Inverse folding.
């Protein structure tokens, strides 16, 4: 979320796709659970440069650049769990 907010603060229009509907709703309403990040996010959301959505298609429709920041838990043997990529 820090990277997303920073990109929006520097003038980019950013659409962040998340899978947790309540987190998307809370963030779009300005409720951020990370210290000091709420100030930056609230400013960029109000300016229309930052929006969160649960729609992957909405993210692809207008994207020029796509970043993936997904959880990637590892198994005990060190292998990666790619479940997040198989949405």
């Amino acid at each position: 979320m820090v990277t997303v907010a920073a990109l929006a603060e520097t003038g980019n229009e950013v659409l962040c796709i998340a899978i947790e509907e309540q987190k998307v709703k809370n963030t779009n309403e300005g409720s951020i659970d990370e210290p000091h990040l709420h100030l930056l996010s609230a400013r960029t959301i109000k300016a229309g440069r930052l929006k969160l959505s649960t729609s992957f298609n909405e993210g692809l429709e207008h994207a020029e650049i796509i970043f993936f920041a997904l959880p990637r838990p590892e198994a005990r043997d060190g292998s990666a769990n790619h479940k997040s990529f198989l949405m």
